[in-house]
Amino acid sequence: MDRSIADELLFEERVIRPLPQFVVEANLKPAQVAELREAATDDPLWYWEDAADELEWFRKWDTVLDEDNAPFYRWFAGARCNIVHNALERHTLTVNKNKLALIWEGEPGDTRKYTYFELNREVNRFANALRGLGVGKGDRVVIYMPPLPETVFAMLASAKIGAVHSMVFAGFSAKALRGRIADSDAKVVITADGFYRNGRVVRLKDTVDRALFDADSVESVVVVRRTGQEVDISSGRDFWYEELVRRERTQASTEVMDASDPLFVLYTAGTTGKPKGIVHAHGGYMVGVNRTFRDVFDIKPTDIFWCAADTGWITGHTAAIYGPLLAGTTAVLYEGHPNYPQPDRLWSIVERYGVSILYTPPTTIRMLMRHGTQYPESHNLTSLRLLGTVGETISPVTWDWFHKHVGGNACPVLDTWWQTETGMFMISPLPVAALKPGSVARPLPGVEAEVVDRQGQPVPPGKTGFLVITKPWPAMMVAIEDDPDAYRSYWDRVPGAYFAGDAARKDEDGYIWIQGRADDVLIIAGHRIGTAELEGAFVSHKAVVEVAIIGIADRIKGEAAKAFVVLGDDYDPTDELIEELKEHVRGELGPVAVVKAIEFRESLPKTSCGKLLRRVLKSEELGVAPEDDGDPDDCWSA
Ligand code: WT7
Hints:
Elements: H1 3-8, H2 20-25, H3 30-42, H4 44-53, E1 63-66, E2 74-77, E3 80-81, H5 83-87, E4 100-105, E5 111-115, H6 116-132, E6 140-144, H7 149-160, E7 164-167, H8 174-184, E8 188-192, E9 194-197, E10 200-203, H9 205-212, E11 220-224, E12 238-240, H10 241-246, E13 257-258, E14 262-268, E15 276-281, H11 282-297, E16 304-307, H12 314-326, E17 330-334, H13 345-353, E18 357-359, H14 362-369, H15 374-377, E19 386-390, H16 396-406, E20 413-416, E21 449-452, E22 465-469, E23 479-480, H17 484-492, E24 498-506, E25 512-517, E26 521-524, E27 527-530, H18 531-539, E28 544-554, E29 558-567, H19 575-589, E30 595-600, H20 614-622
Parallel strand pairs: 4-17, 6-7, 6-8, 7-14, 8-11, 11-12, 16-17, 16-18, 18-19, 19-20, 29-30
Antiparallel strand pairs: 1-2, 3-13, 4-5, 9-10, 14-15, 15-23, 21-22, 22-24, 24-25, 26-27, 28-29
Helix pairs in contact: 3-4, 6-7, 8-9, 11-12, 14-16
């Protein structure tokens, strides 16, 4: 990564200590944290076995960690379980039965609430309906929906019957959806007629119809009626959700899964070509998420937890749904835009439901911060006791605003580092820890991370290197859909360690400071977008001969894409063409693919073997000399 960017990220170190009252009330006291950390470092398998013992299993494991086929690690080998039993059914047999599991709010202001008992009933009806459609163990179910109650039902119903859910963010295009359907051979697609976003109705079913043109694996489409708009229903293939579940029984059997059987697939940007289908399994994922979610968020019986991220990303899986439900807490889910109808929607939701823990990406905070403090100030936010962020580095200015104007200087801000691939939180302060704004603090107990150089040797404190995870962890991905080589590549770079793809440094206290991606992936509004996928969208336009994408700074989104385009002979570099190209890329990938700037070039810088030198373009953009790293192969950054 560029030194100038790294320098910008060398934030001033400030230490903020937790308020005494908070420490008194915390589930894990500082002394216990220290003890746990030490015990977990000495014997990580003891630590994770202890975490597994907190959950219910149909059969316990023969081995905590089977390393025979490393890096294809198998956690809790021999065990049988189902995450839905732990996230839902188990709570219906305890005092949690009549506790709210889910509070949902639609963008127009409509709300729906479900207790654990009621949620279980809905999930069972949908599970039976899916079985009726012929869905069973191992079948892929694509869910193309915004955050709706039915989205939660769909995920849990699939998992309950042993099917594998594959959520596709509702902001993706028909083409992107089509690719994800084809890659996983999905049998069923679950969607809605449309949804509300920023005051408009977004059509979803039409997009599904376009995506399904000619897709032979898909046998049925289940459509949730959300907006009531007219949609085409193709008879024999499409079913209204309501009609499908109406007559179903409210009891359903739970499929007994092997701990390493797949639970879900989630596509994320890779450094090359098409997105990778990251696969997570029932056993390890539930153990890792259950322990880390409760420790990081200090869950109490009275909490109302809100993860304001879309269900279409890993944050929406782990932190919006599985984490809170495993913990038996109450989760809030919101359909719409944070600015609708005005920039106080988040604060109004916090106030109305008494949200006590709020978890959101920095990009949302930056966006709301721009509108001024009058919005958070016009609401009573005293129910909040913890704040969390994820997805990208949070600058101290944003951190301070969040801490002061949202948290009233009384709520720790937990900056959690993790990835689609890691499944669970990996590096994060615990609520009783000393905080340094801009730092993700230390690896959680049971997680071992290091900052290393190209040879895999730890770098001294203060020096930038590559972030690696040196021990397997339970919620790690178990595979990449149809691509064992892509899976292996994470473990090839530094022997025995998982290469996260991030540049980072560690300070004298062992606190980790994430400096950004070290590879060709951009973090736009907290979401990973591969330069390769964006470039592919550009070259599919007839005017484009060649293109290179780099990330440039953006005040709200953190990072944005800039394209350097070489045009064919018959095309002129006009402003109209710039607009046309931006529109084209949006059409190819969906509204997530925002291109901020396009610059036309006669040619692009390349290595002697023809590899695109994006870092040269980036240095030019920043007006600094390219870093000569003496690495002719450039295998680390290109
Ligand atoms: C990448 C993973 C895990 C949920 C959201 C994104 C970046 C993540 C932080 C953080 C700085 C962060 C990293 C990582 N990232 N959390 N707290 N501070 N950067 O999941 O789409 O899989 O992206 O997001 O670059 O590698 P994802």
